[in-house]
Queue: 2 jobs
Job 1
Amino acid sequence: MSSLLPSDSPSNLAEYSVSELSGSIKRTVEQAFDQVRVRGEISGYRGPHSSGHAYFSLKDERARIDAVIWKGTMGRLRFRPEEGMEVIATGKVTTFPGSSKYQIVIEQMEPAGQGALMALLEERKRRFAAEGLFDPARKRPIPHMPGVIGVVTSPTGAVIRDILHRIRDRFPVHVVVWPVRVQGEGSGTEVAAAIEGFNALLQGGPVARPDVLIVARGGGSLEDLWGFNDEAVVRAAAASTIPLISAVGHETDWTLIDHAADLRAPTPTGAAEMAVPVRADLEAALAGLSARLSAAVRRQAEQRRQALRAVARALPSLDQLLALPRRRLDEATARLGRGLEMNTGNKRRSFERAASDLRPERLAAAFSERRRRLSERMAVAARLVDRMVTTRRSRLLAASVALRGADDRLSGRIDRGRDRLDGLHARGARALAAGLAGRRAGLEAQARMLGSLSYRAVLKRGYALVRDAAGVPVPAAAGVGEGMAVSIEFTDGRVGATIGARQAGIEAAVDQAGDEAAPSPRRRGSRARPAGGPEQGSLF
């Protein structure tokens, strides 16, 4: 307990709370490192949080520092951070008092040189190729004569004018332009949304669904074209159900969308030339095909005419074709008359044999035999019906007798059950009343026992209970000290008191007064006499 007491030689150092010390450290660090540029590799990056902020670390070979990019700064970055990317971050160092950590709040960030972007580009290219996004088998052919062309590009640049001019000169078709940003932060997201939007259009809807898409942009540096290397753009191009032509940059510029597209054009103008044919060439080709078709039709008709003439010469004359069938008809006509005569004779003989067997005596005998058999069967059926009716009547009488007996037995069982239920009800009522009386008597006995054991019964006999300031009872005089505040509980309430100086004479007087105030023994039933001593004074 002595260790909790203040030291005899206090220090002259200022005393800080934890919050004050953390705040002082935070201000010192922020003033000393207000603006710093740090080069390091991104580690632990998992994309923006649901709040829009991004939390990760920057590391090198020997150290690591936590970093955070607030939501507003994320929208201004020219590229999207990725795991393992080497960057140069500009910001200020601050501390986080809640966990005694320091971190850098990044305000600007850029890749660490052209080599870092190329390395990131190669890594993405390998990853997408491994997923099969660049597989040639996935690429679709470009339609030869599209009815509608969708163009994803900037609406204010020279690219869209070149594309429209080239399409108008070669083969005028309907062109739908989806305006996007083609450079800077967010350009990749807009290009991907445009590709997905064109694919979401319905055939025959208010906006015509394109037959082919052109994603176009003029030339520029690697940083300027970086939006077309975005993962969302590559996946949208690979997933497009509409054939897509990539025309980003000049002929020497390559981006990842070129590998995912169905066809790559060296320039935006070249994309327009690939999308539509030359109308004059089509007309010339159509005229040549029409002439060839007419000549082919004439040659085919002449060949068919000559073949028909050759077949006609080889066919026999009409008389030759009908001579043999005419002879067969004549022979069949001659045989038909003779066959009818023979058939008629056979039928007549059959009728005569049947008529010889149909005499009146035989018919009457047959009718008598049939009538006798019918009478016998009717007699047998009558006997069977009588026997069945007798059997059913006896069964019905037996069932009626059994039913009357069962009704009598059931009535007796019901009466006996009703008597038994009345007896059980009376016994239950008596048992419930007896149980409640026993429980009530036990409860009253316990209440009396509780009243006799309660300290309040002792207070009614003239005693008092002393408690300290915390409300804990004081069992002995050694537990109190001079000047100590106590409360004294009597049978009718509590009073406050302060302990004075301890005196041995007062304690003896109190003990003597208590002995005199004690009631003398008396016979049972006699009335108690009042104590003749003085009233009870202070306990101390």
Note: Residues 366-402 form one domain.
Job 2
Amino acid sequence: MSKNLYALFQSRFPNNMSSDFIKSPDGGNLSYSELDQQTAQMAGTLLSLGVEAGDRVAVQVEKTKEAVVLYLACLRVGAIYLPLNTAYTADELDYFMGDAQPHVMVCTSEKYKNLEAVAQRNSVPHLLTLNNKGTGSLMDRFKRTLPHHEVKDVSGDDIAAILYTSGTTGRSKGAMLSHDNLASNADVLHKYWGWVPNDILLHALPIFHVHGLFVAIHCVLMNGSGMWFLPKFNAEEIISLLPKSTVMMGVPTFYTRLLDHPDFGQSICQNMRLFISGSAPLLEDTFEQFSKRTGMTILERYGMTEAGMITSNPLSNPQDNSRQSDRIAGTVGYPLPGVQARLSKNTRDQDATDRDATDGDVGVLEIKGPNVFKGYWKMPKKTAEEFTKDGFFITGDIATIAEDNRVAIVGRTKDLIISGGYNIYPKEIEQIIDTIDGVKESAVIGIQHPDFGEAVVAIIISDNTKNLHEAYILNHLKDRLARFKQPKAIFFLDELPRNTMGKVQKNILRQNYANHFKTQQ
């Protein structure tokens, strides 16, 4: 049996191939029959361009059903799909093109002119366009091409996709994900989250990222069911579609925006069986407010580019399947079936010593499982550095693992603050600040300090119910945090900088406030 991920999806297609895979509020639906036909035709299009198994196809386009067809067609022919954030500039794409050396680059017509020189400079044979209305030179060629129905026979270790990490601490690295990596994760998530016939996913995520492209779409394909496919998040549109959906996957900002909407409540969610949050930490206050408003509990999970999903809160309480009380705010649940997780007290302890973590210990999370990627593209030395000698991937996330194996993420190793010789975990401080009356959200960072090495700095967003100021915050912290953990400076902003997946960009905050204590001398 072929190990091609597309062959796995084909085996899960519904008996009624006229049923919808993609549902659009404007009526531009795509049935499973059309999906199979169009991916075959797009496969023929790629082959007509000289794409061979193992060739890279780089794609920076808007979210459309045609983009999904292109991704699946790459799987069909054994090409390596390379999705790129739509926010990347031509200069950033220059690096990716030089590193990945794609055979085909697909962009929007508006970006074609800027990318033409980039493609030429990096000897990319074909630069084609795909626009949000399904137009462009790629689709012109598609219409003239005969379908290629064969699904390429590949090994499970063959690379299906390369996703570049954000590169906030250095050069972006291309994580190589194999057909087996993606298939194993899709199979586990489909089972673990209890997908049932006729489930309908509400999909408002971008599709250049693990969450929207792999986790969401793969679950739908494994279920042979449909999804509402929205170009972006819009609270009004989401609320109108919730009664016609059963599952929603989102980032935390989706849920805070829904809670800000006066029409959002329990009656809107009556048909829903599952809300899932990921890609960024979910605030405990959001978790609690959502539960009170809807009577439902958000399921938080944890994953990363290099491994897809790693842990998840449970679908239901094993003792009472009618309740969701086993989902705990501030935790990301248990390692998924087949995934091993452990802690190390040393970020580069490759000799696998000192790993007998007990309940409450804090350490760097290390994982092993069939979902863990094959390494970084053209970076064998960096790949070797990121794995322990016994094969565990060093995630770089600081975590705790409770006695029952439940995982909570404390922060990133790059966010760890060392002040006066003490290790300080920002999330501990953020969780306390967030409970202060008048605080909507906070971010804690460390910046250079002449006396302490690094100093704790808090950036706070007000909910506009209080006149917040530094003395007010520090007064609330004085009896709740050790002196060395208390902020040496506090700043107030209207909003925190975030990436497209809702993660707070602490690197930007560190840059913005880097010279604060230097100017105080």
Note: The CA atoms of residues 189 and 338 lie 11 Å apart.
